[in-house]
Amino acid sequence: MTTVPIVAPADLPELPAGPGTVLTEPLVGIDLRGAVTAVGPVDHDRILVGIGPVHPGWEPLAADLDLTLVPTAAGPDTVTVENPHATLDILGRAALDAPRAATVLASLLRWSGTLAVPAALDAESFAYSTLLGGPEFAAWLDRRGPRPLPPEVAEPVRVTRDGPVLHLELNRPERRNAYGRQLRDALVDALDVALLDPSVRRVELTGAGPAFCAGGDLDEFGTTPDLATAHLVRTRAGAARPLHALRERVAVRLHGACVGAGIELPAFAGHLTAAPDTVIRLPEIAMGLIPGAGGTVSVPRRIGRHRTLYLALTGHPLDAATARAWGLVDAVTTDVAR
């Protein structure tokens, strides 16, 4: 039995809404296994998760919900899991632990896919900045405790040129190529070269060491002077915009841990290859945040908003084979440079 409430689709219009309910019971299961009945438009404050197998006729509703769990493969709007009810409990606990972050993410994913990429990046950043000022992120900072800033390094991104090909290698293996200020600025500077020089026909991005990129540098979290500046830095000084602008010329090769920004940014690339040992995670909800390096824009455009929400709410690792099956990466190959 699940501890998350499960209702029939016909009961959707009767579900209580409002901020109090969102904070105390942010996620509800919707049973899609029974016969089809008339249901009005789906518009709700809470996260709505379908439980399958989906009875024929419920497919349009499953597409409208935030996520649907099924025991056997049933299309890109669903996630196949061994036990839908047990997984619903995992999602419910994650949403209850960080209801503001979880519901903000679900709401954002419902509509940001209709926006042009630059506008969608702004929308993500506005939501992220809001959560930076929230109690869930503050509680995570308290648990983390004070940290010293990472030391300066001479070459956080190694840049080489081979004719029309610009090779970029994330070069902080001692920090698993964490996406901190130094690495971000060096990466953006290198991408600007390709934007300004049309003779650069291809950009190849790799990572040094055992991991492509283990996500944002946690030692730098919470260090921006104010939320407005944080938004401007994220959107105007981040790598998401130039990667999107260069996408047809960019090839990224993943390996090892690809966490947070370590998959959010590569997902903008026109061609994304993964080594068999690649492990992908979106862990931000547990920190009281949402993906903030462009992941609510890049990842759904590859795998859809439903599977993106699943990855973010559970924080579960995604292996290379499943990432390929979902379309998050374009190929899995052992020919990935380290």
TrEMBL record:
Keywords: Lipid metabolism, Lyase. Pfam families: ECH_1. Belongs to the enoyl-CoA hydratase/isomerase family. This is Enoyl-CoA hydratase/isomerase family protein. It comes from Pseudonocardia ailaonensis.
